[in-house]
Amino acid sequence: MWSPKDQVVFNTISARRALWADLRRWSVDSPWLLLSDFNFILSQEDKHNGELVSTYEISDFKECCSDLGIADLNSTSSHFTWTNGTIWTKIDRVMVNTY
Question: Do the beta carbons of residue 40 and residue 89 sit within 8 Å?
Fold first, then answer.
């Protein structure tokens, strides 16, 4: 049975590297669909207000997406998926590969 203590939390750049490595272990020779709150952005355009995003912060996720050949599925809703009332970000994504 699952309990909250079993949950892996990827709240730091270094902790997320394990997630990116796990995703790379899956076969990319078939169609992919990833739907998740990645709690991470891919570019400065995915953030409105707040401090600028550094290349260091986004490079691992961007590289993983490139390695897997996945990209955001086109959507018609709001670009930003999370806000605290001041800062808006796109952290929830539906991603597919181009298989």
Answer: no
